[in-house]
């Protein structure tokens, strides 16, 4: 595999859900949550995925790593289709691709201590590592994500939201993965904490060279961390390109709307955006 | 990760420090704290522990054994000189010794049956709920069928198989009692498996078994404990009923249910035969109910 080959190549990925419509004959409608999505991701790169709530971001991210069943397409990880991997290969893959979740507290088992939570992936993938060494690695990782190792025996409900997300990040990093899927990893946090967590992710990315799939509904957040942005609209890719280009010169109307919907502190810029919003509304009214 | 093991010496020292790190407050500890704040529940625990200790220890200090016949005192009211503190029955056996042995038997039987039903019900329900789909449909249909079959038929079959060994009989009853537990646990598992921490475990590569037994089952403690405290008195009553039919505990051994059914036949002539066992049974049932209530409040997920 050459240097410039992407580590992840997604081709024409689709996910359809059967929605039972009731009735005694078991009729169902098909909901196309993800339609024909294709993109590449390179080593060490961050790709942002934006789109409003319900446009299929979570579904797409889970289908890529086969946490849910994809209806069609391919998801090539280092030249091998994840969707066709054997159970054994799949377990090995979980070591290389980790995930960070939206709700920091809900993504941690309330009955486990920070040490058990962060150490679990290590225990799964390196069962030969002694408990002492595992504890030491957990403590080391806690320090890296900005938690004091003295908190190792605490339970999730004793941490703040931001701290819980740091535990989630530590858990994702402990097996030294090559890709981390961050599904709305900061959306549930306070704005000030959001910035801290994003900066932490960027620092850790530099240190470990990990790629990120960074999902958010807020394009302003994604712009800060991602080199490229992919815009999803009703399960379809409407635009993909360099972050600055997508934000400064959006090609698709939906992208324009997403950007215009972000409030900004600069009153002049805000005025301009309000104008864009008005224009978009007028056009929509004219079209209807 | 290989090669790191050479650092073991340093690691051990480091670990020693971490071991001294402050312990966290687990949800279980929180629940215990709330339970201790509940007076009725604490009193119930105190009462149950007292009953438990007394019935298992005191018989060693009584002048009469539970099956020993005192020919000089048959059908006699309490008589302290003869050492019959609660009187004797129609066969001249000491009622206090018999009540203690009966309570012992009822508690052991209820404990064994409840334990069996919890172990089977939790495993079965969690597996059905977690795997879902066809596995779930088949497993739960089996539960429905078991529900529909008459209980007493099973008991008779069990008696035929095991003979009249009360412990084995109640292992068998535990094997029937698990049905409700399995349904409760399955329902809880269906909602637990949608929680993000379960998805996180899957994303980490955890096997289904480790997800079920590390992530789902520990989070079922609340409903399971509450249901178990309600099952214990239920089984004590079932045992009374079976003993009344002559299917449960056999002479000269006895149980609370047997004592009460025998006592109620002669309640007017020999009231001391009914009074003791009845008071203990009622006290235990009330205590278990209050304990169950207290546990429900203490483990209430809304409080988390
Ligand atoms: N398991 C499912 N069954 C049926 N429909 C689903 C399921 N999961 C998601 N959907 C639907 O798919 C669409 C995309 O959802 P999702 O990927 O969660 O969006 P996002 O993460 O962008 O908010 C939504 O309309 C949602 O209702
Ligand atoms: Mg989502």
Automatic annotation (TrEMBL), chain B:
The answer, when asked if Acetylation is one of the entry's keywords, is: no
- Pfam families cross-referenced by the UniProt entry: BPD_transp_1, OppC_N
Single GO biological process annotation from the record: transmembrane transport
- Which Gene Ontology cellular component terms are annotated? plasma membrane
Protein topology in the membrane: Multi-pass membrane protein
What residues form the membrane-spanning segments? 40-62, 105-130, 224-249, 269-292
Can you tell which superkingdom this protein's organism belongs to? Answer: Bacteria
- Which keywords belong to this entry? Cell inner membrane, Cell membrane, Membrane, Peptide transport, Protein transport, Transmembrane, Transmembrane helix, Transport
Subcellular location per UniProt equals: Cell inner membrane; Cell membrane
Where in this chain does the record put each ABC transmembrane type-1 domain?
103-292
- What is stated as this protein's family in its record? Belongs to the binding-protein-dependent transport system permease family. OppBC subfamily.
What name appears for this protein in its UniProt entry?
Oligopeptide transport system permease protein OppC
